[in-house]
Design a protein that fits this description.
By secondary structure, this protein is α+β, with helices and mostly antiparallel strands. The chain contains 3 helices and 7 strands, in the order E-E-E-E-E-E-E-H-H-H. Helix 2 packs across helix 3. The chain is elongated, with a radius of gyration of 24 Å.
Amino acid sequence: MICDATPQIDIRQLPKEARPLPEVIHFQGERILTTWTDMHFGGRRQWFLCPSCDRRCAVIYKKGRGPLWGCRLCMDGRYASEHKSPQARRLQKAFKLRERLGQTEGNLHLPFPERPRHMHHRTYERIRAEAKALELEIGLHNIAYMRKCSVETIRKKLAEGTLYEVRVID
């Protein structure tokens, strides 16, 4: 089950008028309990109790067509990002960093976006350095994949300056 694409109820996203929820909720044929915890700086937070394992959770998910609700662990739920390859996760992170700096379309081959108007210079430089390092890592993985070798081998060859040697076959 992919959590992002499954019917769910998030107690934090309920409108203020609907909160606090009663201690026992009968919803779609299932009895769902709620509980409270005290916060460190005062106040209280309400949680669902998973109908299957009694674990506190903020989000409960529906599995299948039956009246079965439960937490992510009981439903064997995974986030969509857990199904992506490490390279796809790196690409997504690089795009998010560029988005944060104002790039809305295009790819990683475009020039780096200028500093947004109200962003502090130090923040911009930190994000830019992180994005550049990540984009270098993406490039190294791509080269390693094309050459069918490890990323460490590519790093070694870059350090030696022998990555782009031309081999002449007689």
